[in-house]
Predict the structure.
Amino acid sequence: MTGDDTNPRICKRCLIRDLAEEDRNNLRKYLDVIKEPDRTDPARYEARLAVCLSCEKMNAATCTACGCYVEFRAYAKNSHCPLKKW
Ligand code: SF4
């Protein structure tokens, strides 16, 4: 993880799940809001995140094209990438 001067825990290329336990727990709470039938299947979810991880628009787990946490956006089955990358 690389840090910046204001928050050494922020990494431009990290997902929330790669951060501290508190961050992972908060992510889980967000993801649990999405009902089971509306969730992306695990393989597609990981494929979407792989695209985000290599995308120039991702910064600190956030898509700067839409402002969403990428893990949250990718988790919703009917969601899409604002730049149509997935
Ligand atoms: S949702 Fe699309 S634009 Fe945003 S970070 Fe992921 S691949 Fe990039």
Remarks:
- The mean pLDDT is 88.
